[in-house]
Q: What sequence folds into this?
């Protein structure tokens, strides 16, 4: 296992070292890649900017002022959102954090186990098992929500936190991703070396393979977190108590209040804007783990 | 001897133990509901008389009725064609951009990557209800800042929400929302390639472009296959993008994509049986297309490995 | 019914696997304990904002006395809520009380989801207009819900712009068409209004005003009359206006539509009594510039209107305390204090006739402060609501409407053809389900 750490450490140092220590061979900034990415960022951020700007507009300004002109109502929107049903918005935020955080964590664990097993072992039924797991994504989720409801109702679990959490733990996508990352990041000879040293399979997995899989696993975590955070139909079918709603469902109830009540656009937009902030924070934390330096450090210690 | 046997037993049993949680969850939350949905697809409700009062409604066997109904539904077939056209735009553009951005992120001396990486990924986090409102503000001529600019420049102002441009408008939403996601998949894969693999090529004087084409892309091929596979499935199950634009235009029927048809039958018409049959058909079609692709991709990889 | 051997097997597998050993709550609570004893707690699915405050009045007042506590579970309104209720009902887990739009009642009743509460609602019937009450009985002796709010249709117009362009308020549809044309002549970039295909309720209300009866029964058969003469007249009228370009053909409730109302690009709106709320968000800059008038009529001197929106409170068959739930439903929609609170906290227009002119409705809505007799007029118009006739697959008809009329409005093609498609699809669906259908 130490052989890999030795192998990887200099390579990681090599990439960063080139940027810092050594004198620049050509230019300090690679112009083409940087420019391409900045253009890409502008393309994606332009609509996002709308959400940010719209959240500053009062209901009166939203439909009457120029689209990208900031408004003056952000504080009021925030206050209204806070006041809506005694601050139930924050409860939705908390629920979403719980569903997405715990769900993604469990999902990442399950994906890591499965991906590692599928990548590192040769055993009977491996491909069949993998294909069956994958086939799980073929059935459109919108048709599964009703049977899932009926089945959970038999176990008396509907309208509970578990009813939203449990069906989202297994992610075929996460398993597939974990398998690819495991086979790319964990060399077979390192695992073999661990076995020679007499380590148990579990120990090899947790001490050797897992640290190497971290960049891939944080990616799985990120995707699963966002997927659960944005899921709408499953909680819609499962939950009836709005104290248990996640943010997507809560915002939807603000929008659809029946014909005689106007949709609360400003609240929904401000709510959506605030709901993106935790995701940005998560992303910022997670992108640190994509660095190989950290990985090799973890392996060494 | 005994320790060796025990160890080999441990090795043999280990993969099954590691797969146990996934298997249980799969059985409970995928296999059972899928089985139930398939069962429902062979059922129907039979109402007698006016259908008022209790007991007037019975669930009975439908045989293949729901399937023949779905297969002869011209809207479902049209939806499939529309989605194929849409997929031909979305998949290449989205994955092309994702690969391009991932390679750029991974290149040397590129700046602002924490920011650009986050920015390109961010659309993935905008919830659907807000996206509909947002694209309304950007696409509808009366309120769009782009039309405002076009008008000031005396340029032609195409109707984005009708005919051919509608496909572009919808594809744009998918590309905007999905590129960052796929970029991260490919990028994570690129990061797991040990750098000394390129060091040799660099010493041989290979340009960054050559390194990208000859080394990086082949090495992330499994991730590309993965993103392609899931993009095909996502395309065939396209739902969010047309639902986003639906309230803004008369040109988008509620049955625009096959999955919208399923949703319409299950959630608006309340015919879960018909919807289940349609879902099974879509699943089978997706199976053929996506696993067919996976097979072909695997065969090619094996051939290349053998060469 | 899902209680086949297979699903039971499935259920027990799930239960064992999840470690949910105590399944006692499942299935045993179905017994109809009609006689109340001891405290009862009820759940209520509603989308009405502020309903929790109104329910508090009950829980602290009559509910406390009778030991009946109601808990509000706020839902999103919309087409999918009916499916959600039916899914819950399939699992025998529907809440005790649900809010349901009138046109959804036959669907819910035909799924055996709603309980007959005729003997538990007392003299509630006398508090409502006959046309409103009849929607909750489906023409039978049973009572499936208590009316909550109604949406009598009215004509809204920009008073200042009508004056500016020298237009008079149309009292017949013929005049309405002439007004649209006159406006086009004077200001080609303006529209009187739009024909929108994204809210079927509007078209249904217009047809209802013209005397259409979309679903009727004879014996044990349904008769579908979506393309009857009255509805055809309405479809041809609007189709003609769209075709000649006298009105716009873009959908309502888009940012574009909001802007058109706010900037005076569209100067009138055929809507219902709840319009002030919508206009407040859609066109905030034009506050005080609008006025309300009765809907134009098909022949001069008539006064009939349709309804668009409105909902009722129903008790489900899954409820173990149907009598208690019915008692609450009746209180909520007939008690003076409750109605007052519903008007104030939830902004609904009550179905109960005496509430329409009381308390909260002595002042006009803020948006219409210029029209002091707004609610007096509204109450008078509400009395002229034509009877409506809903059937068990309104959702199918509505879904077809969206697509067929959406395409017809876009292509400016024949609305009658779209109407025929709506009729054909609705009949086909009834037949497919096995309903008795007479041609």
A:
């Amino acid at each position: 296992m130490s052989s890999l750490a030795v192998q990887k450490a200099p390579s990681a140092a090599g990439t960063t070292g080139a940027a810092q220590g050594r004198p620049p061979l050509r230019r300090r900034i690679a112009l083409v890649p940087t420019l391409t990415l900045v253009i890409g960022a502008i393309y994606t951020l332009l609509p996002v900017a709308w959400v940010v700007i719209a959240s500053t507009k009062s209901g009166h300004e939203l439909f009457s002022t120029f689209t990208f002109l900031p408004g003056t109502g952000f504080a009021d929107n925030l206050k209204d959102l806070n006041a809506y049903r005694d601050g139930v918005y924050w409860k939705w935020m908390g629920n979403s954090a719980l569903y997405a955080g715990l769900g993604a964590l469990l999902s990442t664990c399950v994906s890591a186990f499965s991906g590692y097993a599928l990548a590192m072992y040769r055993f009977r039924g491996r491909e069949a098992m993998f294909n069956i797991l994958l086939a799980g994504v073929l059935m459109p989720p919108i048709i599964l929500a009703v049977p899932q409801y009926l089945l959970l109702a038999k176990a008396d679990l509907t309208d509970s936190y578990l009813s939203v959490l449990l069906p989202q733990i297994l992610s075929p996508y996460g398993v597939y991703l974990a398998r690819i990352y495991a086979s790319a990041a964990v060399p077979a000879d390192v695992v073999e070396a661990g076995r020679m040293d007499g380590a148990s399979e579990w120990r090899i997995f947790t001490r050797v393979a897992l640290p190497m899989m971290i960049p891939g696993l944080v990616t799985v975590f990120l995707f699963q977190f966002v997927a659960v955070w944005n899921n709408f139909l499953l909680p819609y079918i499962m939950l009836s108590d709005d104290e248990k709603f996640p943010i997507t469902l809560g915002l939807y109830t603000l929008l659809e209040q029946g014909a005689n009540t106007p949709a609360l656009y400003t609240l929904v937009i401000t709510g959506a804007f605030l709901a993106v902030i935790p995701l940005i924070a998560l992303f910022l934390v997670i992108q640190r783990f994509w660095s190989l330096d950290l990985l090799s450090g973890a392996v060494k210690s | 001897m005994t320790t060796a046997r025990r160890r080999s037993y441990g090795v043999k049993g280990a993969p099954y133990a590691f797969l146990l949680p996934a298997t249980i969850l799969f059985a409970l939350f995928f296999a059972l509901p899928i089985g139930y949905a398939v069962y429902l697809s062979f059922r129907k409700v039979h109402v007698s008389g006016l259908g008022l009062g209790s007991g007037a409604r019975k669930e009975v066997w439908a045989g293949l009725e729901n399937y023949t109904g779905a297969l002869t539904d011209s809207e479902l077939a049209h939806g499939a064609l529309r989605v194929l056209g849409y997929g031909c735009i979305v998949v290449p553009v989205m994955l092309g951009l994702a690969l391009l951005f991932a390679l750029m992120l991974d290149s040397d001396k590129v700046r602002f990557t924490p920011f650009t990486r986050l920015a390109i990924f961010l659309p993935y986090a905008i919830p659907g209800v807000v996206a509909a409102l947002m694209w309304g503000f950007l696409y509808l001529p009366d309120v769009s800042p782009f039309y405002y600019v076009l008008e000031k420049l005396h340029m032609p102002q195409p109707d984005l929400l009708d005919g051919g441009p509608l496909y572009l408008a919808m594809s744009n939403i998918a590309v905007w929302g999905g590129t960052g996601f796929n970029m991260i998949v490919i990028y994570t894969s690129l990061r797991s390639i040990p750098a000394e693999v390129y060091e040799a090529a660099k010493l041989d004087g290979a340009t960054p472009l050559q390194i990208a084409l000859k080394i990086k892309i082949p090495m992330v091929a499994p991730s590309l296959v993965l993103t392609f596979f899931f993009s095909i499935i996502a395309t065939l199950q396209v739902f969010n993008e047309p639902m986003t634009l639906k309230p803004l235009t008369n040109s988008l029927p509620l049955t625009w994509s096959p999955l919208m048809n399923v949703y319409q039958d299950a959630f608006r018409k309340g015919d879960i049986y018909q919807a289940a049959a349609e879902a099974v058909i879509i699943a089978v079609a997706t199976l053929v297309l996506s696993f067919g692709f996976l097979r072909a991709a695997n065969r090619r990889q094996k051939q290349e490995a053998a060469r | 019914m899902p209680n086949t051997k297979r699903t039971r097997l499935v259920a027990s597998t799930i239960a064992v696997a999840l470690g949910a050993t105590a399944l006692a709550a499942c299935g045993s609570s179905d017994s109809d304990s009609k006689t109340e004893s001891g405290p009862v707690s009820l759940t209520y699915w509603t989308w009405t904002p502020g309903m929790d405050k109104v329910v508090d009045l009950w829980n602290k007042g009559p509910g406390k006395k009778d030991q009946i506590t109601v808990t509000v579970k706020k839902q999103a309104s919309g087409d999918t809520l009916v499916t959600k209720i039916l899914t819950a009902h399939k699992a025998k887990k529907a809440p005790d009380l649900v809010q349901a739009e009138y046109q959804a009642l036959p669907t819910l009743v035909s799924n055996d989801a709603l309980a007959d509460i005729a003997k538990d609602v007392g003299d509630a019937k006398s508090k409502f207009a006959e046309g409103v009450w009849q929607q909750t009985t489906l023409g039978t002796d049973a009572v499936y819900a208590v009316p909550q709010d109604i949406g009598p249709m009215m004509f809204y117009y920009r008073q200042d712009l009508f004056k500016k362009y020298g237009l008079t308020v149309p009292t017949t549809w013929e005049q309405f068409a002439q007004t649209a044309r006159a406006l086009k002549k004077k200001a080609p970039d303006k529209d009187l209004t739009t024909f929108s295909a994204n809210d079927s309720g509007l078209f249904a209300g217009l047809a209802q005003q013209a005397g259409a009866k979309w679903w009727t029964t004879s014996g044990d058969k349904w008769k579908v009359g979506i393309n009857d003469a009255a509805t055809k007249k309405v479809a041809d009228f609007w189709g003609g206006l769209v075709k000649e370009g006298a009105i716009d053909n873009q959908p309502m409730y888009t940012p574009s539509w909001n802007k058109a109302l706010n900037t005076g690009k569209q100067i009138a709106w055929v809507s219902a009594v709840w319009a002030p709320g919508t206009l407040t968000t859609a066109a905030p800059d034009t506050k005080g510039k609008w006025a309300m008038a009765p809907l134009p009529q098909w022949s001069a001197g008539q006064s009939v209107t349709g309804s668009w929106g409105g909902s009722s409170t129903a008790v489900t068959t899954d409820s173990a305390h149907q009598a208690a739930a019915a008692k609450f439903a009746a209180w909520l929609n007939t008690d003076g204090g409750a109605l007052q609170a519903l008007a104030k906290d939830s902004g609904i227009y009550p179905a109960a006739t005496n509430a329409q002119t009381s308390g909260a409705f002595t002042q006009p809505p803020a948006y219409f402060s210029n029209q002091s007799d707004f609610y007096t007029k509204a109450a008078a118009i509400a009395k002229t609501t034509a009877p409506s006739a809903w059937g068990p697959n309104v959702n199918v008809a509505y879904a077809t409407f969206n697509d067929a009329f959406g395409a017809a409005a876009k292509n400016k093609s024949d609305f009658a053809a779209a109407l025929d498609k709506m009729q054909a699809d609705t009949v086909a669906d009834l037949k497919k389900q096995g309903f008795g259908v007479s041609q």
Summary: Chain C touches chain B through 58 residues (CB under 8 Å). Chain C has 18 helices and ten strands.
